[in-house]
């Protein structure tokens, strides 16, 4: 069977671990050559490179801090140079900081917003300029969250960043369609990754989180990557400006009164 991403090159930001690493592996499995990204190249990147090469795909790793616009612009430009083109941008890098609203510092706010929203904004802008200049189609998938839709007390900055991502995607779907660029969000619920380590270590809290999820379990990174792969592929050729929730039913669940 022909591979879905034959002759396609994908950049996945924040892909040393967690959902980003799963996306890189999934896209490579489906035939894409892959550019990985993280703050620092380390043993996690080395392992991923070995795994992706074993699939017969080309792979490279570029260090860049997604919260810095200068580094993001350089990242996209370098990514294009590595394999001579870029077809798919997965804006996955993201973080959250827990703090009650009254205690949020400007530094914490900036860290979350600069990575989760500003980084995505300018990565996508740089990619779109490239697509326009080369008259190439492109696909963008943003890693949003159920918190682009539902509240999360003590994570106000995170919710603002993902809520912003919702509107960025809606807006750009219209603005970039004439350039043949599709853009969508994937919104995971509670997925077992290092970002949720505190939750996974706290049995009582974990139990109450699972009670709220209709499917009664955490999501797996591969389940998020499968939806990313669909949206990045031509199978989703008529999908743009949407959010796909991968949340076990969490966002719109019915609560017994
Ligand atoms: P994770 O912490 O395991 O992985 C995130 C990766 O992004 C890490 O490798 C981290 O180093 C990298 N990263 C963070 N800031 C960066 C920066 N400034 N520059 C470069 N790399 C950076 O988290 P994850 O769970 O895999 O999360 C991935 C994405 O999914 C995030 O955008 C997160 O908000 C979103 N998300 C996760 C969940 C979940 O339950 N795991 C739920 C909803 C949304």
UniProtKB/TrEMBL annotation:
Its EC number is 1.1.1.47. Signal peptide: none annotated. InterPro entries: NAD(P)-bd_dom_sf, Sc_DH/Rdtase_CS, SDR_fam. It holds the Pfam family adh_short_C2. One of its GO terms (molecular function) is glucose 1-dehydrogenase [NAD(P)+] activity. Gene3D superfamilies: NAD(P)-binding Rossmann-like Domain. Keywords: Oxidoreductase. Belongs to the short-chain dehydrogenases/reductases (SDR) family. PANTHER family: OXIDOREDUCTASE, SHORT-CHAIN DEHYDROGENASE/REDUCTASE FAMILY (AFU_ORTHOLOGUE AFUA_5G02870) (PTHR43639), SHORT-CHAIN DEHYDROGENASE_REDUCTASE FAMILY PROTEIN (PTHR43639:SF1). This is Glucose 1-dehydrogenase.
């Amino acid at each position: 069977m022909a591979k879905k991403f034959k002759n396609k090159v994908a950049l996945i930001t924040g892909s040393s671990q967690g959902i980003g690493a799963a996306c890189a592996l999934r896209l490579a499995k489906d035939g894409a050559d892959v550019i990985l990204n993280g703050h620092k190249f380390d043993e996690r990147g080395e392992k991923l490179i070995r795994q992706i090469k074993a699939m017969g795909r080309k792979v490279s790793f570029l260090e860049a801090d997604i919260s810095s616009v200068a580094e993001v612009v350089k990242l996209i430009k370098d990514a294009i140079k590595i394999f001579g083109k870029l077809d798919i941008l997965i804006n996955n890098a993201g973080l959250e900081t827990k703090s009650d609203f009254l205690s949020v510092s400007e530094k914490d706010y900036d860290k979350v917003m600069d990575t989760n929203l500003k980084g995505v904004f300018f990565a996508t802008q740089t990619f779109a300029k490239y697509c326009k200049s080369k008259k190439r189609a492109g696909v963008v998938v943003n890693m949003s969250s159920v918190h682009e839709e539902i509240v999360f007390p003590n994570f106000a900055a995170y919710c603002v960043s993902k809520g912003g991502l919702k509107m960025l995607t809606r807006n750009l779907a219209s603005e970039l369609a004439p350039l043949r660029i599709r853009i969508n969000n994937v919104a995971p619920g509670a997925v077992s990754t290092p970002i949720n380590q505190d939750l996974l270590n706290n049995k009582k809290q974990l139990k109450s989180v699972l009670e709220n999820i209709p499917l009664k379990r955490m999501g797996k990174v591969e389940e998020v990557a499968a939806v990313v792969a669909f949206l990045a592929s031509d199978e989703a050729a008529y999908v743009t400006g949407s959010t796909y929730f991968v949340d076990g039913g969490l966002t719109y669940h019915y609560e017994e009164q």
